[in-house]
Amino acid sequence: MTNQQEEIHGLQENRIFEPPAQFKAQAAVSGMDAYNKLCAEAASDYEGFWSRLARENLDWHKPFTSTLNESEAPFYKWFDDGELNVSYNCLDRNIKNGLGDKTAIIFEADDGTTTRATYQQLYEKVCKFANGLKSRGIKKGDRVVIYMPMSIEGVAAMQACARIGATHSVVFGGFSAKSLQERIIDAGAVAVITADEQVRGGKQLPLKSIVDEALALGGCTTMKDVIVYKRTGGKISFTEGRDTWLHDLVEAQPAECEPEWVNAEHPLFILYTSGSTGTPKGVQHASGGFLLWAALTMKWTFDIKPSDVFWCTADIGWVTGHTYIAYGPLAVGATEIVFEGVPTFPNAGRFWDTIDKHNVSIFYTAPTAIRSLIKASDVDPKVHPKNYKLSSLRLLGSVGEPINPEAWMWYYRNVGNEKCPIVDTFWQTETGGHMITPLPGATPMVPGSCTLPLPGIMTAIVDEAGHDVPNGQGGILVVKRPWPSMIRTIWGNPERFKTSYFPEELGGRMYLAGDGAIRNKDTGYFTITGRIDDVLNVSGHRMGTMEIESALVANPLVAEAAVVGKPDDTTGESICAFVVLKQARPTGDEAKKLALELRNWVAKEIGPIAKPKEIRFGDNLPKTRSGKIMRRLLRVLAKGETITQDISTLENPAILEQLKEAS
Ligand code: WT7
């Protein structure tokens, strides 16, 4: 690694921040001895450790006797003769424990309007919703796509599916009609739950009409019902027999619904995420193991207490919104914020203002958001966190991408007032919950490092043959033992599951995360150095370069395209596309016009998050004599650096000059 890269990844970082004594004194896991004790318990009796936790943290309708079943490895099963219901564990259980009148959700709308739901109210909403779904013939095992804005109804839709044993697949509201259609088809969904429109940053964005468009693209042969939550009352078209208003569907339904008891391995949800090749993968999660880890990491990583107000700023369309909005906080009876808006509306002080307004005590957001708010407060000092109280905060979290030490320090000083620990949580859609993170009352923190794995999580760094590498030497991040909230399979593609995550080259039993990592020589702390495959992380969102390339070449003007990531101060990485058109290479205004056209094309094909920030046109792409595109050279060009690497295998060196600058 170069010095510059080491700086970016914080590998030269030597500042250590001990957990504040006051925090440590009250923490669920207090001090490193407590952490080490849990790790030792897992090491000495792995199944005993997990079965104890599963008994203590979840209510089982039928207790399990088998903890880990490895008979069909790597298709591992957890607690697989046990039965439970996820929604029962999130709602009924809390009401039985006397939390019926406690606020479950504080909904902060885009315009600042606040709506609350107690556990009892949420329970009734979910039961009516579940009965409404059943009245349409939706049943256990059916797949339901949820294409909803951030709302109490969005969470209720997920819980209602869980209640009746339907498997949900939430599609982020920013995905295009085509992406939505592909997911509906792949999942074989029988229904879509959506809203008329969503509101973000003062703007109305259509959802229902995108669903109409997706279904009009054809191929959604299993689809029968579209259920529409009225958010804005904006004009939409209705297809008789297919479309139903949510309020009509639930109106006459009873406010109780017996939960469908399911096997612990019953698929709770499918969530699509990008891989290095091909179409997005439907990551399938199970009910019992997923919920166990959602609840337990709320306690361990977030040290959740009955008096906390928890706020995770993610969208329910991503895994963070599944584990730490729709399930984890409710599973532990917490009060949480569900936020509809964006960090910069009505101004870039919105997060800080909302923290003060609702006395948020635990705040969990992404480095991209922090970096953009640092910039915003440089421009407009009025929105700097020092102008807000922020005295309710006791813990901060970071998720989705590496947090650079500068952003970490700013967050620590200005938002946490040097009193709040920061948990830099490394995990993935596939892992279901946190994997490597400090425990806020135990682990000494180092800016830019996600520190140590949670107890029971057997992470390691290996070389390409699967052998452990010594600390201080970078390698491939793996997990050596299965864990309860791990991905179970790729929906409809078990072969791809095996080759993507349990490759034979590593022996077929180690989970391959797809990230590079390095452990500190002295502390053993992990630092994630970034993806080792062709997956980009833009603002904490995963994008496959192949997906974007396929979208580009689907445009009739495009002959060939190659997409690479480029480091970006705010978004972590940005998308840079090298494009060869069928017509002559455009220059000047013509190039600008065509670049804009192609960016919008990608937004339409995949969604605005996949729009290349930069497009460069060439007569060709740098290729080897056998015709392979030399992406490593494109990465260097994207960064604006001079190529110092060996280019002897490059067939057309002259092309490099042409691709040096953005059009
Ligand atoms: C990829 C997973 C984690 C849920 C949201 C994203 C990167 C995630 C961190 C972190 C460094 C991180 C990795 C990982 N990543 N958290 N704390 N430090 N990198 O889930 O979309 O499945 O993306 O995000 O590269 O593989 P995802």
UniProtKB/TrEMBL annotation:
Origin: domain of life: Bacteria
E.C. designation(s): 6.2.1.1
Presence of keyword Secreted: no
Q: Which residues bind CoA?
A: R200, G201, G202, K203, T320, S539
- Required co-factors: Mg(2+)
Gene Ontology MF, one: ATP binding
The entry's ATP-binding residues are G400, E401, P402, D424, T425, F426, W427, Q428, T429, D515, R531, R542
Pfam families documented for this protein = ACAS_N, AMP-binding, AMP-binding_C
Catalytic reaction equation(s): acetate + ATP + CoA = acetyl-CoA + AMP + diphosphate
**Domain AMP-binding enzyme C-terminal: where?**
547-628
Q: Where is the Acetyl-coenzyme A synthetase N-terminal domain?
A: 35-90
**Chain's role:** Catalyzes the conversion of acetate into acetyl-CoA (AcCoA), an essential intermediate at the junction of anabolic and catabolic pathways. AcsA undergoes a two-step reaction. In the first half reaction, AcsA combines acetate with ATP to form acetyl-adenylate (AcAMP) intermediate. In the second half reaction, it can then transfer the acetyl group from AcAMP to the sulfhydryl group of CoA, forming the product AcCoA.
* Protein name (Swiss-Prot/TrEMBL): Acetyl-coenzyme A synthetase
Source species of the chain:
Massilia cavernae
